Structure formats: C-alpha cells, structure tokens
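Our collaborator T.R. sent over the components below with a one-line note: 'Predict the complex.' Nothing else. No constraints on interfaces, no templates requested, no preferences about which chain binds where. So this is a plain run: every listed entity goes in together, and whatever single assembly comes back becomes the starting point for the next discussion.
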Amino acid sequence: MGEVMSNSAGGEGALAIICGAGSLPFAVADAARGRGRRVVLFPLRGWADANRLESYPHHWVRFGALGRFCRIAAREGCRDVVFIGSVVRPALWQIWPDPAALRVLPRIIRMFRGGDDHLMSSLMKIFEECGFRPVGAHEIAPEILMPEGTVGQLQPSEGNRIDMALGLALLNAIGRFDVGQATVVADGHVLAVEAAEGTDEMLAQLAQLRRKGRIRSSGGVLVKAPKPGQDRRIDLPTIGPRTIAGAAQARLDGIAVVAGEAIIAEPERVAQAADQAGLFIVGTRQDRARTEDGAN
Amino acid sequence: MGEVMSNSAGGEGALAIICGAGSLPFAVADAARGRGRRVVLFPLRGWADANRLESYPHHWVRFGALGRFCRIAAREGCRDVVFIGSVVRPALWQIWPDPAALRVLPRIIRMFRGGDDHLMSSLMKIFEECGFRPVGAHEIAPEILMPEGTVGQLQPSEGNRIDMALGLALLNAIGRFDVGQATVVADGHVLAVEAAEGTDEMLAQLAQLRRKGRIRSSGGVLVKAPKPGQDRRIDLPTIGPRTIAGAAQARLDGIAVVAGEAIIAEPERVAQAADQAGLFIVGTRQDRARTEDGAN
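Returned assembly:
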C-alpha cells in the first residue's frame, strides 16, 4: 500500500477487472483502453482464460484472496473494480481466506445462505468497505449491451412473440426468489426454468430430453431477463456463441433477451452462428411482460 | 353401446381406470374393489405395467382411441373415469385418432397449445361430453393421499423448514404459469425448478450437477405442491420409491409435500427407503407459504 495512488486518465484512475471465464473480460478491458483508461486484470485462478492475458497487466488471484487483491489494486492506483466473466458459485469450503478475508469470515459464511444476488451484493459491500467502488461492466463498456431489435437475419414469428411475453412474465414473477434468469417457452408451454444449473446446462438438459423423446414438442424460445431489482453491477444476463450453440442443440426457434439489460458477447460471431443455425436473436423491451404481470 | 348400462355396487356403476405407468393405478383399483366397487382398467399402451394387469378386467387403449374407450366403457357400465399413473405428454403427431377422436381433432390441436393443466382440463371436457364423469383418484382412494407429519423416522431441521416455506412460496408464485410442481431449495438458495422434465429427471440432473461439481452446496429439500387452482381430478403431485431414490442420489436432506394435496405411492416402501437413505419425508400444510406470499 506504500506506493503512490496515482490517478491517470481523466481522474478515474486505473480500472481493476476481476475476470471470470470467457471473452467478456477482454471485451471490457479493450473498451476501457479504447477510451484511454489504464486497466489491470485480476484473473480468477481456475476460471480466467490464461491464453489471452499476455497483452494486459495482470495479477492472478484465487477465491478468498481479498487482502492480496486490495494490496495490489491499491498499489496499481485502482479505485473502480469490475466483476465480469462467468464463474460457478464456489462452495464455502473452496474459499481459502487470506488474513484480510479471515477478518470478514463470519460475514462470508452468512453470505452463503441465500441466492446469488444476496451473495454478490454482500461481496460488493465488502469491497466498498475496503475502499473500492464496484462498477458495472456495462457502465465501462456500454457496447457490450444487447441492442433493441434483431441480431442476425431471422425474425421471431407471432407465436414466438407470445412465448417471449409469457417467458418474461414468468421470470418477473420468480425474480424475487433470487432464482435463475432464463426460461424456455414453446407454444405457450414452459419447458424449462433456470435455477442453479445456468443457461448452458439448462439448454443441454433440454436437448437431451428432446433427443430421448421425453419432451416431444419442437421449437420454442429461450428468454433471458435480469431479475427485478437485480444489482446491474454484478450479474447481467449474458448470451454469446455458446448460447447459440446450446439453443441450436435444443432445437429452439430463437433467443430473446431484454435490450439494454443483457450482455451480448462477441456479437458478430453470435449473428453469424444464429444465421447458420436458423435461429432468431432479438433484443426486446420488458414493458409488455411487466404490464401483463401487473407488477412494476 | 347396445348393452345394458347396469349399475352395480351402490348405484355408482363400474369404475373405469385409465392407467399410466407405475403402481398407483393398481392401488386405486384395489381401494375401489375393497369398497365393493367393480373396476375396469384401460391400460395405456406403452405406459401401463402389463405384468400386474392379469388379475383385473382390462382393455388396452392407445392415445387417441377415444371411440374405443367410450364404446367399451359404456358396455362395461362405467360412468366414472379415473386417470392415474405417470404419462409423458405425447406429441400431437403421436396421437392416432380413431373416428371419434377425429371429430374433435381441431379441439385436440388447440389443447396442445399451452401447459399441461390446459391440456388435461380440455381432455376432461371431451370425456364429459361423451357422457363420462372424470373423478379424482384420491376421491376413490383417499388412502393414497399424503398424511400430515413425517413418514419414516427422520424429522426436518429448522433450516429445512425455512427452505420448505421458500419452496412452497416459489411454487405458489409460478403456479399460474402452468409450470412444474416441484423445486429444490438448499440453504435459502433455489437449486432447481421443475418444468417439462418432471421430478425424477430434475433430481437426476441435480445429482449430475453435484457430481460434476457444478453445484457445490450439499443438502436441500425437494418441495412438491399442487398448482394453485389445479384440477385435483387429474394431476396431483406424487411421490413414491423412485422419488426417494432420486432425492438420495441428489444428496438432499429430505422431501416435503403438501399434506392431503399430494399422492404417496407405496407408503411402506417409501418410509423404509427414506430411513435407509437418511432422508426425512414430511407432509406439510400450505398455509404458511401462502400467507408469506401474500396470496390466496
């Protein structure tokens, strides 16, 4: 901590990026750099993509290395910190707390009782108390947000739009239970609701059920939306090339996400893959479902 | 139809039982016989257990054999008809309509747009119009309903009870979407929500996610409840020996179902299997969750 806390580029200082898996951490880093901001990456051991790290200043961290992060981030002149990339919720016993984390261990234990939102918002608070400011990846790089309208060539049918509205209303109704952010609806029939398994796994399971003939309808729409009241700084719903592959395997018609409230990773690859697979991808507004639901 | 519509045993006539898979059709048949009522089984081809049929008068039927069922059931003097045993929702193209079903085909096609409740209640209406009276299996055999309190030796912990209340509130909130009747909650965290896959498959997937380390918590409660407003004559949530095996594989602490509103198949085997697996099984009241939810 002894070093200079220099503030470069516009008085904002360097940006700390705690990196999970996938390409998004690098998209955010590139966007910040493009705006002239210095970035320091903190790849999470076991998750972050080591191959792409070389061209960025970075320091590996593991779950529970709170003291190490705070020390290095302060030395690097970071105040803003972004959490981005996918990470599976670790078990409590997988957190090896360093001395700084040990001091807040009782709070960490309490954090683990409840859903992901509860866990993440408690974690944000701990970072704030250590003097950092958690910011949303989309505040740094708004270009990663899903636009309104279609990505790729295909359009949803009228039936798909009805399924989308049903899916959005369902997600809105279960949001307060701090459960998943995705569902699959086909012909007015809810085929899957995401909980702890994550979207990719949900789609893989649906694909399997269809292959085995356990679900005998075809088509349908994957609908993703943020939970009502969800902290946008942490966990916006995300789609990327893997989501397209999963949706194609599950023989869906397309994917709908809430425009401006979901992240699209590698949009060009997504558009190309969707066209090849014959899927539509659409950024929709949430108003319609909310109104139907009588909430918000 | 030309034959006598004789009404035996208490003026109720014979009871037609349309049989899906599992032991429940036979439990209902035995209960009705025990009360002196004649039963005629209509095992569904591809689902009903052929080995156990011999000791009952029966006529095989397939999906779509509406005319055949009506003809034989009328000849057998049946007015009441029970649907019982598990059946996976067939695809529309798997229904080979006979001439009677052909006449209502446009309605059958419409039935398939929507959730299971919608499908089943439309089906009930068609049977009613053919002169039959659909009755709930639990009206014929109330002994198949889950009692209040524990089955087997083990009791839920205070933490399990909190998870139970959360699970019931969640099921209550999603009921109007005509989606699943089951969820798994562990330590305040919703791990799984049943949709089209069914409870056994949901538990198998959860077991797999835990084996693969994708879900790293342990314990939890399977909660099953009927949908609000669900037609009790068709589709009460059911647990049986297979549910216990599935819950054990998924490393849960136990199972909670709404007492008097869920069916327990083979209760002695369930109790024994639960004790062996170290699981609690409890019939709970729904009031608490409903009150917390501010609904009903």
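Summary for T.R.: Residues 1-10, 288-296 of chain B have pLDDT under 50 and may be disordered.
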